[in-house]
Write a structure and sequence with these properties.
about 325 residues; alpha/beta; Rossmann fold; 2 domains; six-stranded parallel beta sheet; five-stranded antiparallel beta sheet; elongated
Length: about 325
């Protein structure tokens, strides 16, 4: 299963290459409760087909209806959903009670549009990190290098975009980073529920195991299965900064080799299953026999997962994915 962001941009590029005008919609800001975070995308073709989402369905239906009535014919529009005080807004009350501010870009089928979308797609595939710059007055768009962390949608001064709290600037910036990926090293009873949870959360999921029979029997919808040593796949350049790697087999031949390769990558989360005693022994083994440094071993989350008292495979998988999400959002254990 591809990450939703990648699906949106890939399909938008296909529509553009087929000669269609597309509308790329981006959530700029949210106020109160909202179903989608800033930076979320939806793409709509001139035939009314759409992919991605801005809400639970009400915003999408209203947008497509208004598009069919000839609205949004300008290169760029900023509109609000859920704000009763906005006389220019869409007058749609969101079930969650929140407010969405949405950027709507009308992108003609041109070489410039297709090059722009192709750059977005390459960024989501992990080739690099970029800042996407959009002029809210003219609709002009460009890219600049970005190696920073922070909110996905920001103003030129680096602060989160919030139209309510500042005079609207001409340019809004959107951080574009690789789509989230989970590599599961080895097939065990934990692997299937972990893959299923991750896919539901929007991760691209790849499961690797050298046992071809186990790979053939692994059936989780939308998950890529590769019959090879996880360490070989990781060493091939499969990890980027939005990748998590988890080893779930209790087999040192799979788990240790995967960890030895994963610490050489920019993966944001690397974890391996085992008790505290097993984890201590593994750390010593990785330093003594694997040649890792103490700093490299300190990157490993072991024992893996949040301490939820998990016993069943599904509970352990839940603890693993909860810990990955925690790290992804920069939360410490003490903040939970």
């Amino acid at each position: 299963m591809q990450h939703l962001d990648r699906q949106v941009i890939e399909q938008a590029l296909k529509w553009s290459q087929q000669g269609e005008t597309i509308w790329l919609c981006t959530v700029l800001a949210t106020f109160g409760s909202s179903p989608r975070a800033p930076g979320s995308w939806m793409a709509v073709s001139q035939e009314g087909k759409h992919i991605g989402s801005l809400s639970g369905g009400c915003v999408e239906d209203d947008f497509i209806k208004r598009l069919g009535e000839g609205e949004y014919d300008r290169p760029i529009t900023v509109t609000r959903y859920g704000d009763p005080d906005d006389t220019q807004g869409a007058h749609i009350a969101l079930p969650c009670g929140g407010v969405l501010e949405v950027l709507i870009e009308r992108l003609l089928s041109t070489a410039d549009t297709q090059e722009h979308l192709a750059t977005l797609l390459a960024t989501l595939d992990g080739h690099h990190r970029l800042m996407r710059n959009v002029n809210l007055s003219t609709g002009e768009h460009s890219f600049s290098e970005d190696a920073t962390l922070g909110p996905r949608v920001v103003r030129l001064d680096g602060q989160p975009y919030d139209e309510q709290e500042h005079d609207r600037q001409d340019v809004v910036q959107m951080r574009i980073a690789p789509a989230r990926r989970l590599i599961i090293a080895g097939i065990s009873p934990i692997s299937a529920p972990c893959a299923a949870f991750a896919a539901t959360l929007g991760f691209e999921v790849i499961v690797c195991d050298p046992d071809e029979a186990a790979c053939a029997d692994f059936a989780v919808s939308g998950v890529t299965v590769k019959a090879l040593l996880p360490s070989l796949y990781i060493a091939s350049g499969a990890c980027h900064s939005a990748t998590a790697v988890v080893a779930l087999t209790h087999d040192p031949r799979i788990d240790d080799l995967a960890m030895m390769e994963a610490v050489r990558t920019p993966a944001f989360y690397i974890g391996v299953m085992g008790s505290r005693r097993t984890s201590t022994a593994r750390a010593e083994r990785l330093i003594r026999s694997g040649g890792l440094t103490e700093e490299e071993v300190s990157r490993l989350h072991m024992p893996i997962g949040l301490a939820l008292g998990s016993k069943t495979p599904a509970e352990i998988a839940l603890a693993v994915m909860a810990d990955i999400v925690r790290v992804q959002h920069g939360k410490t254990i003490n903040e939970l």
